[in-house]
Amino acid sequence: MKEINASDFEKEVLNGGKVVLDFYSTECPPCEALAPKFDSMAALYGEKIKFLKIFRQGNRELATALGVSSSPTLLFFDNGKQITDSISGGIKKSEIMSRLDLMISEEEVKEIKIRLKPTVSEYDVAILGGGPAGLTAGMYLGQAKIKTVLIDPALPGGYMGITHQVSNYPGFEQPQPGFMLAHYMSEQAKHTGIDFKVAVDITSVDLKKKEIVIDAYETIKAKKIIIATGTSPNTMNAPGETTYKGKGISYCATCDAKYFVDKDVTVIGGGNSAVEEALFITKFARKVTMVHQFDKLTANQTAIEILQANDKIEVMYEHEPRKFDKRDGKMIATLENLKTKKLVELASDGVFVFIGFKANVNVLGKDIPALDNWGYIKTNEDMQTSIPDVYAIGDIISKKYRQITTAVADGTIAAMNISKEL
Ligand SMILES: Cc1cc2nc3c(=O)[nH]c(=O)nc-3n(C[C@H](O)[C@H](O)[C@H](O)COP(=O)(O)OP(=O)(O)OC[C@H]3O[C@@H](n4cnc5c(N)ncnc54)[C@H](O)[C@@H]3O)c2cc1C
Question: In testing the pocket of ligand 1, which one of 151, 159, 353, 397 has its CB within 8 Å of the most ligand atoms?
Answer without folding.
Answer: 159
